[in-house]
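Pilot study result, target chain (115 residues):
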Amino acid sequence: MRYLGLFSGLIIILSWCSPSYAVETRSKPIQCGSEKTLWPVINSAGEKALIGGFSNITTSTGAKEVLPVYLFANTQTKTWTIIEFHLQSEEVCILGFGHGLDFDVAKYFEKKEEL
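Predicted structure:
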């Protein structure tokens, strides 16, 4: 079961990074709000920006946008939050959050030797 969950996570990550791997589009609740309401939450969790990049999105009107996306994390408590910044509207969307931050994930994808 552990590998099934990791495989599902990998598919989601690959479909997010490259449209050529997308299997299907899914919708899920995304929490969005004013950027000024984000910082107290991030600061109270002690999370700092670790990784950033740009995401190509299509809005509900069909417009294409490039938005910055960051992974905030607290390496002590192992919490993390992925945030998409909508700069023009000063809005942010939390794409995901959780716990159990792990930087050594290659171990989950290495082929096990059979006895």
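One observation from the pilot: The helical segments are 2-17, 35-45. A full batch analysis is planned for the follow-on phase.
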